[in-house]
Specification:
The chain has 338 residues and is of the alpha/beta class. It has 3 domains: 84 residues, 3-Layer(aba) Sandwich (Rossmann fold); 108 residues, Rossmann fold; 100 residues, Rossmann fold. Helix content is 29%, strand content 18%. The strands form 3 sheets. A 5-stranded mixed beta sheet has the order 6-5-7-8-9, with helices on both faces. A 4-stranded parallel beta sheet has the order 2-1-3-4, with helices on one face. A 4-stranded parallel beta sheet has the order 11-10-12-13, with helices on both faces. Helix 3 packs parallel to helix 4. Bound molecules: iron/sulfur cluster. Iron/sulfur cluster binds next to loops.
């Protein structure tokens, strides 16, 4: 699968800076694009005369809009806006569409495709969905693209914490096809729907059923839940990033733990890290922040780190056979001013 290099079009940002006559502009992007940050800053400064401050902290999504006193406009690159988040300052989103040859990829893997498929993608590849539909239909497949909730910007888009677009068509499909790189997103679809997911990865050039990865993660999650069952002393973690700030979930978790006659305190952090938990000497933690923290990084924590649903399983409030993906849904982060 050939990947066409990404093209970051700064025209939209340049126009916005000029219209707003912004003299100080913040520039924020995910790690994978930061290699281009300084050249983008130079281009913006040269075209508009503004000064640019590059937001250097890690950024994993539009859930994490950075602000800084004196910055008049934030240029956020690489993610689509989350319609249910209100930016604290004027913010312009520059998506970075990326092409790859999905027609060939689909045609080469015809024997692995079910007859009724759901299509999902990350924001970089959403523009390829119509071509994928056309190709799949010409191969005789029935194709569905679902509309997600207000945390997603377009039909078919999935986030690592929100697969509502996939769930919207779950009853009509036997398999999902995911367009995008890595396991982060297709794993969410697989965990959250329990249906097979075929991931078309433009970087690896591979079309992969991620069933094995899912099974490995499920085993890890059940091991963490089992370990947490005996914990009497818990931390409830809440994150200050605007699109991860689930305060009511944190209170609910704390109350459920206390009601089960165990100790629990809420700890607020902006960047949740394993070593930051050590001083509290707790035996388990539940994270109301990005769900992927527990799922992807959990095994590296010194104590079991669970999602709220997993915590309920550990406390005996949920059937152990009913595993659910923790999602952040529209309305879960009220007052989420970024
Ligand atoms: S909460 Fe996590 S998965 Fe969701 S958008 Fe933010 S970084 Fe991505």
């Amino acid at each position: 699968m050939m990947v066409i290099p990404m093209d970051v079009r700064l025209d939209k940002a340049i126009d916005e800076i000029r219209v707003r006559q912004a003299s100080t502009v913040g520039l924020q992007m995910p790690e994978g694009l930061k290699v281009r940050a300084r050249s983008m800053a130079a281009e913006l400064e040269e075209a508009t005369g503004c000064q640019v401050i590059i937001m250097g902290d890690p950024c994993y999504g539009a859930c994490d809009l950075r602000t800084f006193d004196g910055v008049e406009l934030l240029v956020h690159v690489g993610h689509a806006p989350m319609p249910d988040i209100v930016p604290k300052m004027p913010t312009i989103f520059l998506e970075v569409p990326m092409d790859f040859d999905i027609v060939q990829g689909l045609e080469d893997n015809g024997s692995r495709l079910s007859s009724r498929v759901g299509l999902v993608a990350t924001v970089q590849h959403l523009h390829l969905l119509p071509i994928a539909v056309k190709t799949l239909e010409s191969m005789g497949r029935h194709v569905r693209i679902g509309k997600g909730d207000a945390r997603t910007a377009a039909p078919g888009q999935v986030l690592g914490c929100n697969i509502t677009s996939a769930l919207a068509v779950k009853d009509d499909v036997e398999q999902y096809i995911f367009l995008g790189s890595g396991y982060f997103h297709p794993l969410a679809v697989s965990l959250g729907t329990d249906l097979p997911v075929l991931a078309m990865d433009p970087y690896r050039g591979a079309v992969k059923d991620i069933g094995d990865e899912k099974e490995k993660i499920v085993r890890q999650r059940y091991a963490a839940i089992a370990k947490a069952q005996n914990a009497d002393d818990w931390l409830v973690l809440i994150c200050d990033k605007p699109g991860q700030r689930r305060l009511s979930a944190a209170y609910r978790c704390r109350d459920m733990i206390r009601l089960s006659c165990r100790k629990a305190d809420i700890v607020l952090m902006n960047e949740i890290r394993a070593e930051a938990l050590l001083p509290y000497r707790a035996q388990a933690a539940v994270s109301t922040a990005c769900p992927r923290l527990a799922i992807d990084d959990g095994p590296h924590y010194p104590i079991p780190l669970l999602t709220p649903w997993e915590m309920e399983m550990a406390l005996g409030l949920r059937d152990m056979s009913d595993y659910r993906l923790d999602q952040i849904l529209e309305g879960d982060t009220p007052g989420n001013v970024g």
